[in-house]
Write a structure and sequence with these properties.
This protein is mainly alpha-helical. It is 56% helix and 6% strand. The structure holds zinc ion.
Length: 674
């Protein structure tokens, strides 16, 4: 098997994975050898007859698992961005084995004994700050993973982790399958009235691709609320589209969600916590369940009041159409009408000013140049994970090279919904690695020869994900454990949210928002009106987000042993109890397709988006008012925060930039909740 491209480090620049050589059959053997290699490396650490030292234990642990890291990063990306049946099968097979592998390390008594011994005399080891933090963090991770439990409890813990890993993979695959299966098939173009001509053409093309020749298919996207709901004039079509979305994976994932919540509660109890949420937030910047409760409770009443004010506006317009009560499938449609009538903003009028190449080069990259001095060169000679993936080399202001950025911007059947950042190679000076980072988006592919025109929200997503990319690219740490985005979950969205500010920063906006045919700049008054119209939608957006955050919270604050009979009933009760059962605003995700909390790392962590927005709003304020140039401010933000990864306490980084503790005022003002 010497032809397995994962077995040796890549020889390409920046150790870019050799995608042209990688095939599905390489994954399983690479995972297996990678796990075996790492266990052998751990065994060598524990067999060392010398007393434990920082180098022979912690540094050795950080160096271990190189092959597993290589294959894991590439596989994680492929399973999300370009999956197929073979990859899904490997995922189902390997997930519980990887969980067991993690347990084999964290529950290795001899290894923990060495870490414990070092931890006990940590102050006399003469360690520098980052090394001391590495020791602290590993010690905490081992304890939180169950290193101090007895043998019987550890055995149960292994079972729980294995079952949870399998369940998470099944959950995600169920969501993907039912999201495909519930695409809305329509017979005539009239039913699509309200959509743009290119959207109708795309629905027809989608019909052809999915075996419904001559019909029109609207595939479902991630969120509950489907983007077409804003335009479709046929109320019954809107109703069917939303019902298809809200009903996803109920049968398969309802029982699975109940099972996972019970397993997580049991695991938390084993580890000495009253709930999974308590276990999770102990290690986050929030610290306690009460702190999260307090923020959510503070936001709910004003957000609901805002939404009710918005509903009253919508009702006026809907009444003229004979609609007595606004339903969930009417909300986006009449919001769009309000935007047009009260703010003279038409989403369709904006798109010609947001052409992908311009937004990317003259917006996203331009802002990174303005703030950080970066420049970007596309490298068509370097091959990404898919023909759509484009590779850019990133350079410092002085011309020095920094890393690679890969952009995979388009939707396809093999890619999961949403947008996210991944790292193919994580920066570490210990391992002599420079970063290779990746953004995945889901922008619809245009008809051949047509330009790619983005919506306002897609432009924001592009800036957002690039904020995560910068966090990975600027990483300047020694140990892999601290690389780039390896920060608390309720902190990791903060840098990406800050990067969204460039979208409407006057010098940046003027540079990229130009009509794709005439080159005319986006009229300034249109921007003002769009910003005002955004304020109008805050009630809806905040309520749909908070509803999802509270669902996550409800599932993960259940005590061990609580019997949940039905997922949808549990969900309804949780929202009602939180004061968030706004009938016309469904949660951004309902439980049965809430991948964030049941299939990826956001369980008891969805609150993180608004938690980090507190820091984001403060930092945007700071950029605007600190008296420095944008370039100078960018340098401070990079040096004190973006480059630190997890090597410094997260809130300490924030204070080093802004100069004090965060306050909620700027967030409340921004969301219209003051
Ligand atoms: Zn993000």
């Amino acid at each position: 098997m010497s032809d397995n491209p994962f077995f040796e480090p890549s020889t390409l620049v920046y150790e870019l994975p050799p995608f042209t050589a990688i095939r599905e059959e390489h994954y399983l053997p690479a995972f297996e050898r990678g796990m075996a290699d790492q266990l052998a490396e751990i065994a060598a650490i524990t067999a060392d007859p010398q007393a434990p030292t920082f180098d022979n234990t912690l540094v050795a642990l950080e160096r271990s698992g190189a092959l597993l890291r290589r294959v894991g990063a590439v596989f994680l990306n492929q399973s999300s961005a370009d999956t197929n049946d073979l990859v899904d099968a490997v995922d189902a097979e390997i997930s519980p084995r990887l969980a067991a592998h993690q347990d084999a390390i964290h529950l290795d008594a001899a290894l923990f004994a060495r870490i414990e011994a070092l931890h006990e005399r940590r102050d006399s080891l003469g360690l520098d700050a980052q090394s001391l933090r590495l020791l602290e963090r590993h010690h905490t991770r081992f304890v939180r993973a169950g290193a101090r439990l007895g043998a019987a409890e550890q055995a149960r813990l292994r079972e729980l982790n294995s079952e949870l890993a399998s369940a998470a993979t099944a959950f995600q695959q169920n969501v993907a399958a039912d999201t495909r299966a519930r695409a809305l098939v329509l017979d005539s173009a009239e039913q699509l009235d309200g959509l743009s001509a290119d959207a109708v053409a795309a629905a027809a093309e989608n019909g052809r691709a999915l075996g419904h020749d001559g019909r029109y298919v609207l595939s479902l996207k991630n969120f509950s609320n489907q983007s077409e709901l804003a335009q479709l004039t046929d109320r019954s079509v809107r109703e069917r589209l939303l019902a298809a979305s809200l009903g996803r994976a109920v049968a398969a994932n309802g029982p699975l969600a109940i099972r996972m919540a019970a397993l997580r509660a049991e695991r938390a109890a084993l580890l000495g916590h009253p709930s999974h949420a308590a276990y999770v937030v102990e290690d986050e910047t929030a610290g306690t369940v009460e702190a999260v409760d307090a923020l959510l409770a503070r936001l709910v009443p004003p957000a609901v009041a805002n939404a009710e004010r918005e509903a009253a506006e919508l009702a006026k317009l809907a009444a003229a159409d004979g609609i007595e009560e606004i339903a969930a499938h009417d909300w986006a449609f009449y919001s769009e009408r309000v935007r047009r009538s009260s703010y003279q903003v038409d989403a369709a009028v904006l798109r010609p000013y947001f052409e992908l190449e311009r937004v990317l080069h003259d917006g996203v990259f331009f802002a990174a140049n303005l703030a950080y001095g970066l420049t970007f060169t596309e490298r068509p000679d370097l091959v990404g994970h898919h023909p759509d993936a484009r590779v850019f080399e990133v350079f410092e202001e002085d011309g020095g090279s920094l890393g690679l950025f890969i952009g995979d911007f388009h939707a396809r059947a093999s890619k999961r919904g949403g947008a996210w950042m991944d790292e193919l190679v994580s920066q570490s000076t210990l391992l002599d690695k420079r970063p290779v980072v990746l953004n995945n988006l889901n922008i619809a592919s245009p008809a051949p020869g047509e330009p790619v025109l983005l919506t306002w929200d897609e432009v924001r997503t592009l800036f957002h994900e690039f904020g995560h990319a910068l966090h990975g690219l600027f990483s300047a740490v020694r140990f892999p454990l601290f690389s780039g985005t390896e920060v608390p979950r309720d902190f990791v969205e903060f840098p990406s949210q800050v990067n969204e500010m460039w979208m409407t920063w006057p010098a940046v906006l003027a540079n990229y928002a130009k009509h794709h045919v005439t080159g005319e700049p986006l009229p300034a008054d249109l921007v003002e009106r769009m910003t005002a119209a955004e304020g109008f939608g805050q009630g809806f957006r905040t309520v749909e987000y908070l509803a999802a955050a509270l669902l996550d919270w409800a599932w993960h604050t259940v005590p061990v042993g609580l019997e949940i009979a039905d997922a949808q009933e549990f969900e309804g009760r949780a929202l009602a109890e939180a004061g968030l059962a706004v009938a016309a605003i469904p949660p951004r995700y309902r439980s049965t397709y809430f991948n964030h909390i049941f299939a990826s790392g956001y369980s008891a962590g969805y609150y993180a988006y608004i938690w980090s927005e507190v820091l984001d709003a403060e930092t945007v304020e700071w950029f605007r008012t600190n008296g420095r140039t944008v370039r100078e401010s960018g340098e401070v933000f990079r040096a004190e925060l973006l480059s630190r990864g997890g090597s410094v306490d997260a809130l300490e980084c924030f204070r080093a930039v802004v100069g004090r503790d965060p306050r909620t005022g700027p967030l409340l003002a921004r969301r219209g909740l003051a």
